[in-house]
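re: that chain from earlier
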Amino acid sequence: MKTASLTICLFAGLVLWLPGALAQEDAREAERRAELERQEIFRAGFQDIVTDLNNNSLERFANAIDRQDMLERIFGLRLIDQKVKKNFRESFDDNLLNILRSAFADTNGNVRAAWLGFGSKGDRGKAIVRYDLPDFQFNYHEYELRLDDRGRVVIVDWIDFLNGDRFSDAFGTQLIAANPGKPAVRKLIDLQAPTEQQTFQVTELLKASRDRQVDRYFEILDGLDEELRGQRIVVLTSVQLCKATRNRRKLRTALIEIDKYYPDEPLYSLMLLDYYFPSRKYEQAMQALLSLQSRLEVQDSAMLARLSAASLVLGNAEDASSYAEQAVQIEPGLELGWWSALRARTTMRDYDGAVEALDELEKTFGYTLGPEAFEKDPPMAELLLSEEYEAWYDSREQPDAGEQETE
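^ sequence. v structure.
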């Protein structure tokens, strides 16, 4: 009897539990479907923005910014001069397109955006975009996104890795520099109790940067103590001033300072490549690339091509070949990937693969790669003497006169 009673109780409990469990499962399935729908809306909306960028239009990008929210992010808790703040607020809407053109100035008016990665949960999202710049240079933006109550993608803010800063933070600092008061400057210094002298020196640095007085700026910089010289506000302002004034010599000095104080900061890895590669600091360049790759959490052909180049000069031919092959497989239309593949395959004596890369570079990117193109390129000498190259050169369609020469 006790066994029968227990069985009846268990059955009754199951009957009571089952509808609730099924309802919970239905709710989870409904939420899963809703999440997938939000993700599709996110992707479609952001794809429209990227497509518009690739048509050299910033209209959708500008329209995706919540003006009031962005103003609040730029102002934040910064002690910006009230007149500067008022003028900026009143002109922000009319000037936004020009502000964005300035933010994309490195593209030289020809935006080429490659959407590399995306993730979202609920109404929040993140996207990684690569921008192809002249002379085989690249930039990366990490976008913070959200969906508004009408299902439209809003660009909340973004990190510009070539500038080493978040858009709102960089602009907020510029507004302080327009008329830097002592309390505002003191908040920029990441020291518990900056001295009057330190506050004054940073104030003068900001004024010199605002007025594009490079010599004056570096004169002040030379007088800073070690503690102040390594402040993020100082090292970043130095780099951004040199970029704004196109002062290559002083930019190298500014990048040396970044390398001295923040060699392991992924946010600065991309800008440091402009110091590491020309200075033949290839091991540091390799580590900077790996650090940035880890930070971005995406597989990118341009990154892989540059990792291939760094591996090659470090004597790691197998790694160079592996990176190059990944680059051309992931994005066959990226020119730099084929240059990396050409050099890595040549080093590995894969001459069939090397002439495949040559053929791609000629047919797709318009180069003329006869022997004369590599006269001053000793690493290519063995390829030019190979049977594979001779056969390819004899069989290829001769390009028209005046076509593009090698890089």
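The first helix runs from residue 2 to 54.
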